[in-house]
Amino acid sequence: MTVTIKGIDELKQKLKDIGERAEELEGSRSVPVTDLLTPEFMRAHTRFKDAQGLFDASGFKIENAADFKAIPDADWDAFIQSVSDFSDWRSMLGAAVKEWTRQRLGL
């Protein structure tokens, strides 16, 4: 008697695809914060529809990376805590990186 398991080939292919995508992500890379803070992520975790809405509402002048770096960490963390599900910027960014990675892996 033979037992056929349907879908095992599909599972193998899916795992192979995930492995290939993981290899593509290996190493260091620079990802713009606006690519991490997708509209879906922002709507799920803040009252804003996108990252630009967050930046605009912050009250800080954020036109480039230098402007962003000039914001005192404590002030930015307090703002993030007041408008999101996160206690600080590092937590928010970490969650966004995890979501970005899941999407790249196709999970």
Provide a descriptive summary of the structure in words:
With 107 residues, the protein is mostly helical. The protein has one domain (30-105). Helices cover 65% and strands 0% of the residues. The chain has helices at residues 8-25, 33-36, 39-45, 51-57, 65-70, 73-83, 89-105. The longest helix is centred in the N-terminal third of the chain and has 18 residues, at 8-25. It is elongated and about 55 Å long. The mean pLDDT is 85.
Tell me, what's the shape?
A: elongated
Mean pLDDT: 85
**Helix-strand string:** HHHHHHH
> Structural class, from secondary structure content?
mainly alpha
- Poorly predicted regions: none
The proportion of residues in beta strands is: under 5%
Quickly count the helices: 7
Main sheet makeup: none
The helical percent reads 55-70%
How many distinct folded domains? 1
Number of strands: 0
State Rg.
Answer: 19 Å
Measured between the Cα atoms of the first and last residue, the distance is 36 Å
SSE diagram, text form:
Blueprint: H1 8-25, H2 33-36, H3 39-45, H4 51-57, H5 65-70, H6 73-83, H7 89-105
